[in-house]
Structures are given as C-alpha cells and as structure tokens.
Amino acid sequence: MEIWELGVRDAAKAIRDGKLTTPELVRALLSRIEQLDGETQAFARTNSVALLSQADDMQREAAMGDFRGPLHGIPIAIKDILDTAGIETCAGSSLLAGRVPDRDAVAVEKLRHAGALVLGKTAMTEFAAMDPAPTRNPWNTNHTPGGSSSGSAAAVAAFLAPGAVGTQTAGSIIRPAAYCGIVGLKPTYDAIDRRGVFPCAWSMDHVGPMARSVDDVALLFEAMASTGSRVAGDAGERPLCIGISDRYFLDHADTDTKMAMEAVVARLREAGVTLIPLVLPESFEAGCDAGIITMYCEMAAAHRDLFAASRSEYGWKLRCLLDAGMQLSAVDYLRAQQVRRLAMDDLSKMLSGVDCLLTPSTPAPAPIGLDATGDWTLNLPFSSSGHPTLTVPVTLSGLGMPIGMQLVARAHGEDRLFRCGALIEKQMNFNSNPFRTH
Prior knowledge:
By secondary structure, this protein is of the alpha/beta class. The chain folds into 3 domains: 3-224, Amidase signature (AS) enzymes (Alpha-Beta Complex); 241-278 and 354-437, D-Maltodextrin-Binding Protein, domain 2, CATH 3.40.190; 284-341, no CATH class. The protein has helices at residues 8-16, 22-40, 48-63, 106-113, 150-157, 174-179, 214-224, 255-270, 284-310, 316-327, 330-351, 380-385, 414-428, 434-437; strands at residues 43-46, 75-79, 117-122, 163-168, 183-186, 206-211, 241-245, 274-278, 356-360, 389-396, 402-408. The chain has an 11-stranded mixed β-sheet, with helices on both faces. A hairpin with a 5-residue loop joins strand 10 and strand 11. Helix 9 crosses helix 10 and helix 9 crosses helix 11. It is globular, with a radius of gyration of 20 Å. The chain starts with 7 loop residues before the first helix and ends with a helix.
C-alpha cells in the first residue's frame, strides 16, 4: 500500500507506532496533488510551505511520545467556506479573494486540537450555491462531482487527502460524497459548531466530515463535534431495525439506483437486520417546500449588502436564487418556519421507531456534464429537518459511476448511523479506489 492510500485512522496509528512520519505522509500527499490535481481540480489552494514546517514540529513531538490527540499529524482538506487562520478563505467567490482570516472556524480549531493539520482549501461552488466549481469527478472527469462540497469529495475520492470537511445546506455533503464514491456525514443540526463558516442559510447550514470509510468519518466527527453531541454509543450490539419509506425516495430513481437499493436490502436481510415499511408523515413534502423557502430567504438576507453592491460579479444561478429570495415576504418566511417545525416533529416521531431510515443518496449516479451539480432532492428533507444522515457507497452503475445509500437517524443518532453504515460497508464491500477499478 502506498502512503497516500492510508485512511485517517490507519495513518494516525502508523504515526503513533513509529512506522510512518508526518513529513512522509505530507510529502506523499503533496506530491500526489501535484501529479493529479491539474485534472481533478479539487483544491483551491494548498498550505504546502507552512504544512511542511508544521509536519516537522509534529514529528519532533511524536519522537518524544507527545501526541496532541487521535489525529496527530494527519492532514485534512478543508472546504473553502470554513475560516482557516493565515490561509485565504474565499467561499468559492472572487468577491472574497485575498480574505485571510486571523482565526480558525471552530470546527477547524477542534481538528487542530485533535492533532490534525490543514492540508489545503478545497474548491466549492460559489458561496455554496449552484454555480459549479471547476472540480471534476475522479471516477470520470466528464461527470460532475456534485456540490457544493465538490473539492472535498473529489480530494478524498482521488486519494489526495485521507479526510475532508464539507458543509451542507440542501445536499452539499451527501450528494458529492455519493457521486464520488466515498462516505459523508451530515450530522445533527448544530452538532458541529458553525462559527467561522460563511453562512449560506444559517438555520439549515451543517458542517460534516468526509472520508473513505465509516470508521474514519466517525473519528473525524468525534474530533469536531460539540460537547454533548459526540457519539453516545446507545446503538449497542442489539439487532438492528431499519425502515424503508413508502414514497418519495424511489419515485424518480433510475434503474441502477433501484437495483442497488434492492441489493442492499437483500444483504441486510441476510445479515439478520429487521426491515420494516415506514409511512412518511403527511407533512413530509410540505416540509421540503418550506426548507426551500427558508433557504432562499436566508441566502438573500446573508448576501443583501454585498449583492446590492456587486450584483454583476455573482454567478447567474446564484443571482436567480437571491432575486427569488428577495421577493419572498416575512410572512412567507415565518410560515415556512412553522411548517418546517411541524415536519421536523413528525419525522422525529417516525424515526423514533427504527435505528435508521434507508434511502438512495441520490436519484441517480453523477450525471455527465460540468455545468450543474446534480440533484439534491433526496437530501433536502433532512437538511430542512436537521436530522443526521450518512451516505455509504455500495456499487457502481452500468456506466461505472458510484451509487450511494443514505441512512437517516433521530437527532443525535450518529452512533446508529455509524453502526448501520459499517454493516452496509461490510456487506457490500465497495472498492473505493477509482484508479484501480478502471
């Protein structure tokens, strides 16, 4: 195995056991970025000069048996929407070019406290909306990697980083992770502190980790989560109970995705999992619509002054979203919040009877073309409700593109997601390396 193939936990263990040094890991990743990122374009910028110096410091500490935390010496890619002290942070927009924060976002601060290093800032859609990043999907560069956490997903999938941080307001962690064949977690709303993250829609913005295994995502979540939001471990070893919804999630799924869902369900049954049908609440679709209204209104509020001064410098898709948001009234916004709350409560009641709900992560694999970022309709419901979701890659489509399955749990049920996700990972045995598959 090459050094750059190591996941988060394996690399951390190798460093702790003295079998790998942080400078070796950093140089291997920077070399790979130099070789491959011209085509993938996952990174907006790397932190190479400071990173090499920090790696030497980490190695001196490790040699003395002094480890900062479970991620000691592990380089992590950070989405360009999270502030990083001393590193330019632009949220994917030329309007913020040259903006260098003097302190880290809280999530980044927590990663550093656990011993992680900032490998670089990953490319993203403009202000986390719909105007695409230049990033390409490592499985096939003619296909979108998804968005808005485009670069974070692609960097992990292309083995340019062992792990990454993304954000999601509608489908911006789960969709790109699924499209790029990796694991992604959108945690419970506010389980990871959002301070230092440029807002998209503040009541729906989530910060979450991406990696190539469920275990690595769980490790990153544990490091970033706020006190009281860390994995509770109440899933235990009892038999799992997973729900399958009666509508919505398979209504527009393509044939490959439906077949993948059927295969996962069959494997779970063989593994002794109890699968039960669930009837989505009557408020479900209304909650999705309310989430869209909320997102448009809050985006318009976040950009009001900058948009008024620099409208022509915004991408045309984002201009359309902001114009739409500014046409909505306070009554529209408040009514949407009421509907969201009702839908959230109804979903919580439904999810209380199962460990997880199982759905496809996206209606179809990553589509051909780079002018759009794909379909987030299967992710939006839980960005609106704030329930935690996890995507796990399970198979490839007929065109050789990854297909992921989405797991949804009750609030602060990340431990249930990790247990169910690890079982699917084991049963499906997906090959996460696009360069060895093709």
